[in-house]
Amino acid sequence: MSAVLIVGAGPTGLVLALWLRRFGVAVRLIDRASAPGTTSRALAVQARTLELYEQLSLQGAVLERGHQVPAINLWVAGRQRARLPFVAVSSTLTRYPFLEIFPQDEHEQLLSERLLQRGVSVERCTELIALKPGASGVQARLRRPDGSEECCEAPYVVGCDGARSRVREQLGLDFPGGTYRQVFYVADIEGRGAVFNGELHVDLDEADFLAVFPLAGSNRARLIGTVRDGCPAQAESLSFADVQGRALRSLELQVERVHWFSTYHVHHRVAAHFRSGRVFLAGDAAHIHSPAGGQGMNTGIGDAVNLAWKLAAVVKGTAGSALLDTYESERIAFAQRLVATTDRVFTFVTAAGRVADLVRTRLAPVVLPPLVRLGAVREFLFRTVSQIMVNYRGRPLSAGRAGRVRGGDRLPWVDSGGADNYEPLHAACWQVHVYGEAQAELAHWCAAQRMPLHGFTFTAAHAGAGLRAHALYLLRPDGYVALASPAQQPDLLVRYFAARGLRWNED
Ligand SMILES: Cc1cc2nc3c(=O)[nH]c(=O)nc-3n(C[C@H](O)[C@H](O)[C@H](O)COP(=O)(O)OP(=O)(O)OC[C@H]3O[C@@H](n4cnc5c(N)ncnc54)[C@H](O)[C@@H]3O)c2cc1C
Prior knowledge:
This protein is an alpha+beta fold. The protein is 33% helix and 28% strand. The chain is built from 14 helices and 27 strands. The strands form six sheets. An eight-stranded mixed β-sheet has the order 6-5-13-14-15-12-16-19, with helices on both faces. Strands 21-20-27-26-24-25 form a six-stranded mixed β-sheet. β20 and β21 form a beta hairpin. The longest helix has 26 residues. It starts with a strand and ends in a 7-residue tail after the last helix. It binds flavin-adenine dinucleotide (FAD).
């Protein structure tokens, strides 16, 4: 029997399955669709996702098959007002100081290939119909490809089944939020014009929004825009011809072919809970928001990574089931913040009325360019959008502070003094880092207890990243800091694990 039944083989379910297999946990992955999605949907793979992919050795293939966007250009009412190169602000923050573009259909294909190499194939045309959670397991009723029904039982079930999640519905969990009045469109096009320069272009106009993402090939791009309220046709019956005027006029695009066009409504919702007993929600099943910031898929992948090591620890008996509570407490807070932020930005960008128009088309062109030229503002924007700022400070698994780094933070990445501090994270296990000199007592304790200890020569780059010389940092299997302490006492580690009912290995 598989320890975990995963419902839905979108990016969230595929990454969860890969991670669980990485930890040696048996999984079953079902999807009601007969084949993987064929539309490109999510294009942006954020820097934090690439960092997390290092633990699965996946980042190389994503970088090879996708392509890198070096800068964002801001246009207001048809005029280019600012250019923000990523590398200038982020090359010391992450190994990935750019926006990676990799269409979702190709991304899912890559994840499925890797999963197959780990012995798991997606069971297609297999639909979850109903769930019955019990104390020792969850009963699931499935419809098989031939139409017959199957009852199966799994210790844990994870609903990665998208915005209309059957799992969420079966748990009776609310999905509060709302739906924007605007209709979005998405179009993959071939064409010519100044914006086909491999960079991202965002144009603000009167109550209107248009983003141009470069696709592979010098003359292909994805347009994401809002349909003007005054557009005559019903959203469902619109074609690219109905909406193209704005793009052609403002950004001087010449469109030669339209490969894909679709319209959709955007919702902003977060489920009331991400866990109910032995059942979890992850990805779009748990939270949805505007796709404009390129966050949705990346957040689902972040959920999957957060949940995977915890489920694996509980299945293998190195943690009690209380560890599973920390999944919701860590991820729901981030999802709520993200939905609120994308809502604020989207509301500003699309607010109707004369004052809003004036702010966007008169004030923004004056205020925004000098503002985004400030290094600190650009760094903040990069940290936010790339998700490297996501942290679990103040949560039950996070403790202490050393330098500017607190328990719950992403370990700052530093490649200096001949050593890359993300290298040991590939092991995806609990480990201790010391930047400076590890004291003999700590070294003996770690050796005796088979706790990996990694020492790094302390350099100015470590200080710049906020790490403190000779301090102790305990890292979780997902690379977040669990405990940060200026003192190197092994007793701190013993107490950290004991207080949370955790063990760092399977001995
Ligand atoms: C046009 C568009 C553009 C977007 N652009 C971006 C972007 O640039 N960046 C970004 O990060 N995000 C973007 N998104 C959002 C992104 O596509 C989603 O966040 C992402 O697909 C969520 O992944 P998921 O695996 O959680 O859910 P999904 O991809 O929705 O996958 C759910 C899976 O569950 C299966 N399923 C559903 N019900 C059942 C059932 N009862 N039994 C079995 N299987 C079931 C479905 O068949 C599906 O395969 C975009 C979305 C759209 C629509």
